[in-house]
Design goal:
Number of helices: 7
Structural class: mainly alpha
Helix content: 25-40%
Shape: globular
Strand content: under 5%
Largest sheet: 2 strands, antiparallel
Order of helices and strands: EEHHHHHHHEE
Number of domains: 2
Mean pLDDT: 82
Length: 192
């Protein structure tokens, strides 16, 4: 059996190629690559920190997010962090705890396996919140806001009839109504 700690030399290094749109560094400087879409090959940077977890994403804060927010607007805004404030919320706190490129750069985040673990926990948190009042929170009352994040660019309000089309990255187009429950419609999963 091969030694799992032995250095492997026959693997090519893997690089990320997009971003960063704007990466704030701990020393107060910023790295930018224009619009973040230019070819910019480099290794992922990791900078795990517990500061943001302790400030924005502790277990008591997650519990408070689930229990104290009775409507989707407040739940979303508390989870995402209220715009115009220094509050990163549970979602942003998790991203910034990863630091480096994975946490702080929209284009690079999916290149790191931690991204999927983090977003699995975000999905689980939303699922628990929904389960506290599933009849209401899987209906139209479980939707708030426009079809774009913070209405940028301006877009129509999201409804149960809004179509989600992820193009080549997803399944066929589907109505939001069919995605509101994780156990009805095309999905079939729950968290233990």
């Amino acid at each position: 059996m091969a030694n799992v700690f032995q250095k492997t030399t026959d693997l090519e290094p893997k690089e990320v190629n997009l971003g960063p749109t704007s990466l704030n560094l701990a020393n107060g400087t910023t790295i930018a690559n224009g619009d973040g879409l230019g070819y910019n090959p480099r290794c992922l940077k990791r900078d795990l920190t517990d500061y943001t977890i302790q400030k924005w994403a502790t277990a008591p804060l997650v519990a408070s997010l689930i229990i104290d927010n009775k409507d989707i607007w407040n739940f979303q805004m508390t989870m995402q962090g209220w715009p115009g404030t220094q509050d990163l919320g549970v979602h942003g706190g998790g991203h910034y705890a990863m630091g480096g490129d994975p946490g702080r750069d929209f284009f690079v985040s999916p290149g790191d396996p931690l991204f999927y673990l983090h977003h699995g926990m975000i999905d689980r948190t939303w699922w628990i919140w929904q389960a506290l009042d599933s009849k209401t929170r899987t209906s139209g009352a479980g939707i708030s806001g426009t079809q774009t994040f913070l209405n940028n660019p301006p877009s129509a309000n999201t409804t149960l009839q809004t179509i989600v089309d992820l193009g080549y990255a997803g399944s066929p187009p589907v109505k939001i109504a069919d995605l509101m429950s994780t156990i009805e419609g095309p999905m079939c999963y729950m968290y233990a």
